[in-house]
Amino acid sequence: MRRVRRRAVFKNGDCNVVQKHLQRRRLRFMQDMYTTMVDWQWRWTLLAFALSFILSWLFFALIWWLIIYTHGDLEELHLPDNQEESGWAPCVSAIDGFTSCFLFSIETQHTIGYGVRTTSTECPEAIFMMCFQSIYGVMSSAFMAGIVFAKMTRAKQRAQTLLFSKQAVICQRDGSLSLMFRVGDMRKSHIIGAGVRAQLIRTKSTKEGEVMTQFFTELEIGSDDSGSDLFFIWPMIIEHKIDENSPLYNLNATDMLHDRFEIVVILEGTVESTGQSTQARSSYINTEILWGHRFDPVVLYNKDLQAYEIDYARFNETTQVDTPLCSARELNEIYKIQEGFRTPAETTFTMRQLSHNHSDQAS
User: Fold this and answer.
1) For residues 78 and 16, what is the distance between their CA atoms, to the nearest angstrom?
2) The dihedral of CA 261, 159, 178, 320: what is its sign?
3) Are strands 261-271 and 299-302 parallel, antiparallel or unpaired?
4) Which member of 45, 161, 221, 247 has the lowest number of beta carbons within 10 Å of its beta carbon?
5) What is the CA radius of gyration of the chain?
6) Distance (Å, rounded) from C-alpha 186 to C-alpha 210?
7) What percentage of the chain exceeds 90 in pLDDT?
8) What mean pLDDT comes out for the span 203-221?
9) Cα–Cα distance between 120 and 114 in angstroms, integer?
10) Domain 158-342 listed as CATH 2.60.40.1400
11) Kind plus residue range of the DSSP H or E element containing 147
12) 18, exposed or middle or buried, with CB in 10 Å at 0-12, 13-18, 19+?
C-alpha cells in the first residue's frame, strides 16, 4: 500500500495553507490596503476600480449641486436660458440640474474641459472645490493605475511559463544514486540570475521525544557542475546526490513507497524583460518519484535551422534504466567491500543481481 502525504505545495505552486482565528484580521488588512487590493482576484479589483471613479463622480456632483443650489443658480430666473435676460452671474455656467452637475464633475476630475461648463469668480467655494477635485482625480487615477499595473506584472504571472517535470526520478550517476527533476522556461526572454532550491518536508522525532510533523531539510542540488546557479537558456536537469549528508541516504525503493515526505522545489530569478524578481514553486511527494528512471534528452541541434531545438513534447518523458533497489548507504557498503577484489564486469553483474533480488522482494 502506498502512503500518500498531504501536500504543502500544489503542483502549480499554490500553498495548501488555510489561516483561521486571526485577531483583528480586517483591520490589519485595511491598514495595508495597497497589498490587499493587489492580492484580490481580478473581478474584485476591477469592481473596486470602477466604483472608485463612479462613486467619486457622484459625491463631487452632489457637492457641486449644493454649491450651485445655495447660490441660487437653480431658480427659474437664474437658469442658463434666462441668465442673459436677468443678468445673473452663476457659479458654474450651463448648469440646470443634477445631471449637468454630474457631467461637470467628470470633466473637472479628469480635466476633460469641453469648454461649455466653466467656473466663475462669483463663488470662492466653487474655485476651491475645482482645485480639490482636480488634485483628487490625479491621485486616485495614479493609485488605481498602480494597482492594476502591479497585478499585471506580479511574479506569479511570469511563473506560469516556468515548468517543472511532473515526476522526479532516481537513478545512478557516476556510480552514486541521485534524485533528479527537470525545469524549463517557455519564453524566449530568459531568467537572469536563476537559482534553484529544494527542501524536504517530513516528520522528525527529537532526542527529547518531540515530534515535528513539518520539519524542513535543505537539499544540496545543482545542475551538472554549475551548482544551484543556472545559465537558464534551455531545460535543465537538477540533481541531488544521495550521499552521507542526504536525508534520503537510508531509503531504498520499498521505503520510498511507504515513507511520507514531500520535496518542495523553488526556482527564483529576475525577469529579463521587466527587471522584477519572480519565483516558481512545485513539489514532489513520494509517489511522484520514479525509481530506476532517467529523463530523455529534449535539446538537440537542428542542422537545418542551425540552432538548438527544444522538444517540449518530451519534457516529462523518462526511460527505465537498471538501478539497484537498495539504499545509497547499502550501495556504498557494497562498493567498499568489493573495492579492489572484483573487476568492473563482476561489479556490474553483482549490481544487477542485487536489483533483481530487491525486485522479487518488492513483488
Assistant:
1) 66
2) positive
3) unpaired
4) 161
5) 34
6) 45
7) 39
8) 89
9) 16
10) yes
11) helix 124-152
12) exposed
State the angle between helix axes of 98-109 and 124-152 in degrees (0 to 180), rounded to the nearest 10: 60
Contact assessment for residue 98 and residue 61, using Cβ atoms and an 8 Å cutoff: yes
Q: How far apart are CA 150 and CA 168, in angstroms?
A: 34
For residue 134, give every residue at least 6 positions away whose Cβ sits within 8 Å of its Cβ, in sequence order, or none. 108, 109, 111
Query: Does the pLDDT at position 271 exceed 80?
Result: yes
Q: Where in the chain is the domain with CATH 2.60.40.1400?
A: 158-342
Closest CA to 335 of 217, 159, 209, 176: 176
Q: Which three cell numbers stand for residue 28?
A: 490589519
Model confidence, pTM: 0.71
CB 94 within 8 A of CB 100: yes
What is the tally of helices (H) and strands (E) in the chain? Answer: 10, 14
312 Cβ neighbours under 8 A, 6+ residues apart: 163, 184, 186, 235, 298
Residues 6+ apart with CB under 8 A from 179: 168, 169, 170, 219, 239, 240, 242, 248, 263, 289
Under DSSP, is residue 194 helix (H, G, I), strand (E, B) or coil? strand
* Interatomic CA distance for residues 239 and 325, integer angstroms: 19
Please determine, for residue 169, whether its predicted confidence score (pLDDT) is greater than 90. yes
Top-level class of domain 28-153: mainly alpha
CATH 1.10.287.70 residue ranges in the chain? 28-153
Could you read off the pLDDT of 178-193 as tens digits, one per residue?
999 999 998 888 888 8
CA distance 4 to 7: 9
Q: Which residue has the cell 515548468?
A: 163
The letter for the amino acid at 186 is: M
Say how far apart CA 40 and CA 31 lie, in whole Å: 15
- Give every CB contact of residue 7 below 8 A, 6+ residues apart in sequence: 16, 262, 283, 285
